[in-house]
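Justification of computing resources. Each target in the renewal requires a structure prediction run like the one illustrated here; the chain below, 166 residues long, is used simply to show the kind of job we budget for.
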Amino acid sequence: MASKGQCDPCTEQGTSSPAVKFCSDCEERTCFKECKKFSSLKRYFRCNGQCFKTLTGLMDGTNNNIKKLEDDEQTILRELQNVKENLVKQIDKLEEKVIKELSSIKKEKEIKFKRNKTEIGELKAKVQEIHEQVNFLKEHGSNSQLFWLCGNRRNKFNQLMFELKR
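Resulting structure tokens:
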């Protein structure tokens, strides 16, 4: 589109040329041939300004990304701490449960072992009594008395042997 009026770059340089074209990038009227060198210089500055603006936007975006990264790190660290605390609580509960079960099992076993100890003590006393009776008859009695005692105590002795095997 031809534009009426003077070339804007030439006018700025102090010369006068009729405008033949309107540059939509520069938003200026130009004579095109005469101010081609001025247009490219102006385009360079405009591009440089646009680059600066773009780089500023990129810098701002990068700064925002860094801040978001730091915020995300803090959020993740807090969440990790919460998970850790929950795991520790679960482990503590499990430990408490195992300790209670262990204590209960220990008490049951202690009762059983004490009962066994008492029974063993009673069996030992009965065997000791039979042993003393046999030794007494060996030293002071006759063979017939010893034979009678062994026959008489056989059932009791067999019962003791059965209890020992349990």
